[in-house]
Amino acid sequence: MAAYDKLVAEAAADYQGYWGRLARELVSWKKPFTKVLNDSDAPFFKWFEDGTLNVSYNCLDRNVERGLGDKTAIIFEADDGKVTTASYRQLLAQTCRLANGLRSLGVKKGDRVVIYISMSIEGVAAMQACARIGATHSVVFGGFSAQSLRDRIADTGAVAVITADQQVRGGKQLPLKAIVDEALALGGCESVRHVLVAKRTGADVGFQAGRDVWLNELLAGQADTCEPEWVEAEHPLFLLYTSGSTGKPKGVQHASGGYLLHAALTTKWTFDLKDDDIFWCTADIGWVTGHSYITYGPLALGGTEIVFEGVPTYPDAGRFWQMIQKHKVSVFYTAPTAIRSLIKAAEGNEAVHPKKYDLSSLRILGSVGEPINPAAWEWYHQHIGGGRCPIVDTFWQTETGGHMITPLPGATPLVPGSCTLPFPGIQAAIVDETGKDVPNGQGGILVVKQPWPSMIRTIWGDPERFKKSYYPEDFKGKYYLAGDGAIRDEKTGYFTITGRIDDVLNVSGHRMGTMEIESALVSHTELVAEAAVVGRPDDTTGEAICAFVVLKRPRPTGEEAKKIAAELRNWVGKEIGPIAKPKDIRFGDNLPKTRSGKIMRRLLRSIAKGEAITQDTSTLENPAILEQLAQTN
Ligand code: WTA
């Protein structure tokens, strides 16, 4: 803790000096920067503005030059258990071939490339190849539907899409290329000139001559070396879409220099990554965790990491533990949802209990994506960490680029359920609605008082929305608004995140906007008149999606209600993706509304939870509706 305090003091005494020092130590610059922070156009902050670099050079070439060419960069384990590895030299060569291939198709600096592929060495190489030529990638999670994929392609104006014929998860072959075809056919994606297709299963897929290119054929003719495009530090490295409180997902834009710095720095300090570690982050590259802690952070440090194609429950719920044993994983980073579902599985079946496996290689455990409840924390600590591994409960967001509040292992005394203290240099605080600091022990709104290098730069194509969402006038535009509530412990000052303060749900660690799901439901114009979506607590997924629906026909009951609910669930799955399917759907003749017509969501939240309504309902237009909605329980 003395070392932690020293870093915090260094940042407090000379904020720019602190970040400048770390940026020189961790990032290799082509042209060194002379200025750390430009805040003249706040909140559009610029970091290391006059420096140039290449992120892929930092993650690959630099390690080969340091003598790590033969070191394993990636251990890939396929769904069926087959293992393939790539050394730094091999990953560099693969990235260069793909970068050359993209260039040969005319893709250049500043172009956007959408990547829609499952967990694979190709996926990581595709992101690195974009970074190498200065193209801005936007990875879309393989579980998103054609409609969601189309919206993202259209919003980015991508010139190319990189995908695979299929993906394999849990023993099943699932489409990728077919969904890309469907997305492009929906229209609005005229910017796309090429679709690059990796062969994963060899399945027969549609092929449009002139547009579609087999990746293996494209790569066959390409050189193993490729001069990186040296870009300015602020050059957009990637766009990643995430849910906010309005209907339309927002393209969070990250820069190159500052982002890489924080991805590398947090991997180094939060995971204490050492040369001989085997690091495993179980996130998908379609989410920000996979960007920072698979594609960029660990590779920037020359680490060895696992990339896993499959799911934690296939062929059985012992898969994670079996893989930790097999690959001697030393640092393991996963989500509370996974832990909770594996606790359930282990309690029901001795054979998949972690005690059946040798987990002695582990030294650090991590948690991310949602609050970890103390019971799951204890189980993780005892049964996975053998009571000896520190757990780093890392709070951060797509917008923050890397860890914001987290223990540093071995230094910060741990408290289950608390993400403890801000990462050195991050000025996290809790304030009230007017921006005034609240005393410890009193909950409030989580903000960050100073800009930091890996922060969101803007929302792609919508700078006004960026300002409104993250630098609202309530705080005079001065503080970054995270969108979460938090409370600090009276004695220790430790932070505990109390959950979102906006209309964003966290289902299995996935962010979902309630408005997004409502829009999907009402877009079924034949059936649905009106819909309201709220969250309710769920033992496994953290939160579950509950939809209240008014149909254009009389309220269904019994079998008919079940049938329509199933149809609507599938509809949402098609509109957004399976992760957005409501768990509960209830039908009513109407929704609880105020006399001015506003839906009273807090009442719906109580009903969804199965709670008695104790709130004031005097402003309700139609109080009888509450009883009807509660009955459909
Ligand atoms: C939540 C994922 C409590 C929070 C990296 C945040 C957490 C949202 C934690 C961001 C944590 C993430 N404890 N809550 N350790 N980590 N969250 O953008 O509500 O997918 O705002 O980024 O997840 O989700 P996102």
TrEMBL record:
ATP binds at residues 369-371, 393-398, 484, 500, 511. It catalyses: acetate + ATP + CoA = acetyl-CoA + AMP + diphosphate. Residues 516-598 form the AMP-binding enzyme C-terminal domain. Its cofactor is Mg(2+). It comes from the Bacteria. GO terms for biological process: acetyl-CoA biosynthetic process from acetate. It holds the Pfam family ACAS_N. Mg(2+) binds at residues 522, 524, 528. One of its GO terms (molecular function) is AMP binding. Acetylated. Deacetylation by the SIR2-homolog deacetylase activates the enzyme. Keywords: Acetylation, ATP-binding, Ligase, Magnesium, Metal-binding, Nucleotide-binding. GO terms for cellular component: cytosol. Residues 4-59 form the Acetyl-coenzyme A synthetase N-terminal domain. Its EC number is 6.2.1.1. Residues 62-452 form the AMP-dependent synthetase/ligase domain. Catalyzes the conversion of acetate into acetyl-CoA (AcCoA), an essential intermediate at the junction of anabolic and catabolic pathways. AcsA undergoes a two-step reaction. In the first half reaction, AcsA combines acetate with ATP to form acetyl-adenylate (AcAMP) intermediate. In the second half reaction, it can then transfer the acetyl group from AcAMP to the sulfhydryl group of CoA, forming the product AcCoA. NCBIfam families: Ac_CoA_lig_AcsA (TIGR02188), PRK00174.1 (NF001208). This is Acetyl-coenzyme A synthetase. It comes from Methylibium petroleiphilum (strain ATCC BAA-1232 / LMG 22953 / PM1).
